[in-house]
Amino acid sequence: MPLKEVEKIWMNGKLVNWHDAKIHVLSHVIHYGSSWFEGIRCYETAKGPAIFRLDKHLRRLFDSTKIYKTEVPYSEAEIEEAIFQTIRANKMKVCYIRPIIYRGYGDVGVNPLPCPVDVTIAVWEWGSYLGPEALEKGIDVCVSTWARPAPNTFPTMAKTGGNYALSQIMKVEAIQAGFKEAIALDVFGYVSEGSGENVFIVKDDVIFTPPVSSSILPGVTRASVIRLAKDAGMEVRETNIPREMLYIADELFFTGTAAEVTPIRSVDKVKVADGKPGHVTKQLQKTFFDIVKNANDKYNWLKFVYND
Fold first, then answer.
1. ∠ CA 198-204-208, rounded to 5°
2. Catalytic pick from 159, 180, 282, 293?
3. What is the pTM (predicted TM-score) of this model?
4. Which of 36, 97, 158, 170 is least crowded, fewest Cβ atoms below 10 Å from its Cβ?
5. Cα 275 from chain centre
6. Angle between helices 220-231 and 279-294 (to 10 degrees)
7. Which domains does the chain have, with CATH numbers?
8. Can 303 be counted among the known catalytic residues?
9. pLDDT digits (tens, 9 = 90+) for 178-237
């Protein structure tokens, strides 16, 4: 579905018109994937528009650039203020937020250092990432034929554009095979993550999720759901998960900024339990949406856009 255009995009300190937000075709990022980005949601809560866990997203964004030895020409505080400025300029009440840092036009060699570091922030409307019925009924997924990178190859803790080449082929493979999403294994054959989501398994009322060492991106929503589960008295184990656990799980679900908390109803056409979202998934989903929709936020995870 094409993006619904808004009026302004923030680029290197200035708000520009949507169609004027352009870069040169020889920008380093186009040729070598040298970008670092975040996906963040602003929800229309009962107390007004609010951004979910903005501080954690910006911390991960700057961690990603640090891994790649890239100096950002703005501070976290300046990027935060620019995000608020962009949302307000477009008069948005609910939106998806995409801050992206990238190597621009300067040199076309592999060496990124001669190229400037540019920053852009865009916002747009984006509903349910995996479809309007996904949150309620769940989705069908497959195990990808593609594995996540081995340790000491790609830095999987960085949310960088180049890493998402793998996510693209995972996603395309899944869609062409009739599935909504894919789950990749790590180099050792353990469960890793989806193309843009973290994975959780429920078995005998214990929640399992792969550790960071399984080549996952340390998700902000993942961390939030782990906190919610533990505070509700649930047992959560971050541990290596063999593939076969996907087929015998009592419940499965994805987490992510775009996916939120999405149930999985089948894997490789094997139904998960009775094929309906389980009680653990529904409880965590309910608690999550109570925070982002009703602003029942005892964690101070929300930052409100309009203070008046």
1. 25
2. 159
3. 0.96
4. 158
5. 25
6. 110
7. 8-124 (3.30.470.10), 134-294 (3.20.10.10)
8. no
9. 999 999 999 999 999 999 999 999 999 999 999 999 999 999 999 999 999 999 999 999
